[in-house]
Structure formats: C-alpha cells, structure tokens
Write a structure and sequence with these properties.
Number of helices: 6
Shape: elongated
Largest sheet: 2 strands, antiparallel
Radius of gyration: 29 Å
Number of strands: 4
Order of helices and strands: HEEHHHHHEE
Strand order of the largest sheet: 1-2
Strand content: under 5%
Length: about 200
C-alpha cells in the first residue's frame, strides 16, 4: 500500500513524542550525576509511614535528584506539498528507521545514508562531532579522571562518616568495635577505666 505525502508526514509527526523521549532517556543515562548519601541516592525527607518490613520501593519522585518526566506532544507543524517521488520515498524510509530506533533497535549507517540527502547526511555527521547537549560541553570526552577520583573518595568518606555515626550510637549503650580496639561507653562505676583503651578488653 502506497501512502500519500500527507499521510507519511503525519506518521512522522506522530513519532516525534517517542523520538523526543528516546533522546531524553539517552541524555539522562549518559550525563546525569546522582546525588548520593552513604553510597545510596538521597531521598527527599517526607513525613510518611513506611511498611513495617522496611522493604519499600521508592518512586523516582522520592529522590532529591529525581527525574522529572516531561510530556512530549505531537508538534503542530504545517504539512508540505511534496510532489517529488524520491523525497516521498526518503520520508517513508525515515519513518521506518525512526520506528526501529524508538523500539530500541539499531540501524546501519548505510540505511540512514540512503534515507537522507547528501546535504542532510553531512549535517548529521557534523552533529555527531559538535555538542548537542550542555553536559557534552563538560563530559563530551567522558568524565574527567579528577572528577571520577573525587566521586570515589567522596563515596568512601561518606561510608566512613556513616560508620563513625553508628559507633557513636553504640558507645552510648556499650562497646563499639573499631579496627584498633574498643570504644567504651562511660561506665557508671568509677572503679573501672573510662574512655579509649587502645586494646581489646
């Protein structure tokens, strides 16, 4: 069944929300840096009860860095009056490729090249080497090693802080084990030693 130029253009327009969402998903996956606390994503503090089992699946909106989903709409654009058969066939091939892309499939470069004019393909190649997203200006060549090291050290420091906080709570009622000894709580009987002993007792 051969579609008219108007029908093919309407198909293209109807695909645009899915195309925009696919692009947003890729950008989020490549450039989003999560906000962490104790090695886990940081939750928004809310006054609400959780199940007694402690097992609760949080939604994206529960996190400080939660992603806001943007509703993509079909663009309101006028249709062109196309009489060139070759251009209509190119548009039909583009719709096929777009359907494959939004479905998560890969397409060959030669397929894309056959669906574009030489000028359009040249513009596509140029777009792959120039920043299209603000994060690409920062991480276009990958995350810098300095930032990667910083995130690693920050995560380790966050873990140590959590461990010391746990030790402090344990010390209020008894002993808190540590690498070189035991942290003692203040004993009620003054005949016993107090504070850090430097050895296991």
């Amino acid at each position: 069944m051969t579609l008219t130029a108007s029908e093919i253009q309407n198909q293209t327009l109807s695909l645009m929300p899915q195309v925009q969402k696919t692009i947003a998903d890729i950008q989020h996956k490549n450039y989003h840096i999560p906000t962490l606390a104790h090695g886990e994503r940081l939750l928004i503090q809310r006054d609400r009860g959780l199940p007694a089992s402690g097992k609760h699946r949080f939604a994206e909106a529960d996190y400080v860095d939660g992603r806001e989903e943007v509703e993509c709409e079909v663009p309101d654009l006028p249709l062109r009056n196309i009489s060139d058969v070759a251009e209509i066939q190119r548009l039909a091939r583009l719709n096929i490729l777009l359907n494959r892309l939004v479905a998560g499939s890969k397409i060959a470069t030669v397929q894309l090249k056959s669906a574009l004019t030489p000028q359009q393909y040249a513009e596509y190649l140029e777009s792959t080497t120039s920043p299209q997203h603000f994060s690409e200006l920062l991480y276009g060549d990958g995350m810098p090693s300095e930032l990667r090291d910083y995130n690693r050290k920050l995560k380790a420091a966050d873990f140590e802080k959590a461990k010391y906080e746990k030790m402090a709570s344990m010390a209020s009622s008894g002993r808190a084990k540590y690498r070189y000894g035991v942290l003692l709580a203040q004993p009620r009987n003054k005949r016993y030693s107090t504070g850090w002993t430097g050895k296991l007792i």
